[in-house]
Amino acid sequence: MTPKSATARACANVALVKYWGKRDPELNLPATGSISLTLAELTATATVARAEAGEPRFRQDGRVVEGTPARRMEEFLDLVATRFGEDPLSVRVVADFPVAAGLASSAAIFAATAAAGAAACGGRIDLVDLSALARRGSGSAARSVFGGFVEWSRGDRDDGADSVATPLQGVGEWDVAMAVAVVNEGKKDVGSRDAMEHVARTSPLYPGWLAAQEDDLSAMRVAIARRDLERAGTIAEENCLRMHATAIAARPPVLYWAPPTLEVIALVRRMRGEGLRGWFTMDAGPQVKVLCAGADLDAVASRLAEIPGVSRVIRARPGPGVAILEGPCPWT
What we know:
The chain is of the alpha+beta class. The protein folds into 2 domains: 5-170, 2-Layer Sandwich (Ribosomal Protein S5, domain 2), CATH 3.30.230; 176-316, Alpha-Beta Plaits. 38% of the residues lie in helices and 24% in strands. It contains 9 helices and 14 strands. Helix 1 runs parallel beside helix 2, helix 2 packs across helix 3 and helix 6 runs antiparallel to helix 7 (229-248).
């Protein structure tokens, strides 16, 4: 018997080698590959059930979601329902960190929704296929299906079947951490989807971004395999700044940084000179994530918290892949 509902939890991930731009917006196929770290402290929990007639189909943190986010989620729920031959679905999401603020909330939300949807439909799916399904809701959700360090392949096929994520290194294999300096908990003015499409179309620097990605991906794989924190951090910083350079050079420019963003960057560079090693990265938003050794997390986080304008610092460590909390597990 098909269960009435199911609940799943997924963690957000932070890309060290970024995905920025799409080769197929409809299927959420990336223009390049990417490598990320899943974080245990940034989670979203999704409960999927059969939709009741006339009831809102998407609630988040107890509120009905409307407009474009609601339409996007409803389209994804319909995709999941069609995949498993089920009636229309609804979802209730709870996130324990700021949403639409540059902290990869959509990755956690859609990965959790994909898994809970499959379970609620009584479906069977392996984790690689689940990654492809989650990608249809949010590109970076493909990576949140897995824990630890994860690579999402660009793929070559037009149908996207080979654009999936695979794990590179599991949780507990390398004692690294990330201090997340939150400087603005509100929603950003320009969403990631709109920004990357605009940047790819108008930025004169975008071709250079694409040309450099394969070298960064190759070098990051080696750094992770060797547990070379300095090399991994250096690549992450350079890749992050190159991505933001394409956005700043777009016409009109897209600028996500806030004054405290620059203060955090400057502090991270000063700390390295003082012997406290950390390397920054940022996604499409003002928050700064600092990669460091696990043993240095508290010291790095304490220094970041001293900066005026940093509202809080989240101490995060490598997190697990998506998990079913209630309902049958589709991949066991």
